[in-house]
Predict the structure of Putative Zn-dependent protease.
Amino acid sequence: MSTIRQRGSFSLLGSVLLAALVAGCSGFGNDVSLPANAPRVLGPDRDRDHLRLVRAFGGEGRAPQLQQMLTDVTNRLVMATDRPDEAFQVTILNSPVVNAFALPNGRLYVTRGLLALANDTSEVAAVLSHEIAHVTLRHASQRSELQARSDLIERVAENVLNDAEEAAMAQSQARSALASFSRAQELEADQTGVKVLARAGFDPYGAPRFLTALGRSSASSDSSTAERNASHPRTDDRVARALQAARRTGMEGTGETGRLAYLTALDGLSYGDDPADGVVKGRRFIHSRLGVAFEAPEGFTLENTSQAVLGSSGDSERRLLFDAADTPLGQSLEDVLRSTWTDTIEPGTLTIGTVNGLPVVTALSNGKEWTFRLSAIRIGNTTFRLIMATRGNRGDLEAIFQQTLNSVRQVQPDEARRIRPLKLQIVTAQRGDTVQNLAARMPVDRALDKFLLLNGLNRNDTIKIGERYKIVVE
């Protein structure tokens, strides 16, 4: 979570807040849409889009050896496509989420979270090949054209026919068509990507291997959204089709995996949240630079994004948002809540108080489907907002809101200095090493589950002496 400068209003209507609370990226296979006529060249004219994306994902990841490997892999893949003269450039994003995507102008992006999940060069090559396929197949332009046609149909239904019901049906059908179209594009990019992977001499089975790891990662995370699930095929289906495509290449056992080279380049890569943007540990969040910490209620899962900390209960019926803003000098906390919340604040619910010695203002807002408890807390010159939401008028909203609000505190400099960044370390298994004792060396929550996920292992797998494995260290 970075400091967000106030822009007059956060525009957080109830529906927008709900979207933000479940927002998250998981997986790969998204080409970010630019105008359909965007030129297919890299250059200064596209730097603005690039810089916006990089900022949204925590900046560029600094890993020179890994960056060079990805560049070499990308160049090798491009030469194996049907468009070897097109220019591509890959950027590592400093984000722990597992994601990759492409711009239509040939810029490719992979997060360090995705790089940590991969176990060899062919798996990362499969991701890049998939993204290159989105670009060479012109998927963004095709989707823009379909979106334009859908918008036109909706406007005709609403404005010409003056039929709200028909307009709503058209909108629903348009969304369904776009989701179905996106799923078809993902599968097409998978198939094309596997072919290019094999032509470039990489192990084509790297694609189904990484898709399997992706499925396991998504299953262990609450960050995937209903919208993404609607627009992406089921992972099991993608794995099965990728396996079929790999078998059709006839390269089983002959393609390059590049495990040792990849793990060598991966050694030392930052893992998890960047302490400069706050760290999530279980239900606790602490931000050393902004000097704030809080703890979510039992059963909540937190996700730290570049804009806010998002939280959700296991049944998704309770949500949490925590963010920060530089507010105008002298603006009261009451005005902060009124100016940054665009739904109605219930009359008489605005209350002034303190929490752990910090000034705080709280309020209540009732939406159509969700009920919100709002608060603004000030530490120094920074104002923080904690917003809790429950679907309907659930009786436990007040209790979980007060519990979370009471945990908000200022972080002192000596505590902030003790927050150390995590990184990946590649270790060689010795005699007597087990899944359990290697996982026990990792200072993270759910260490065993994360060790298995990072190394593509199952609980009943055994450690092989002399084999290299990823662990997380301080």
About this structure: The first strand starts at residue 4 and ends at 5. The chain has 16 helices and 19 strands. The chain has three domains: 48-141+175-270, 275-418, 423-473.
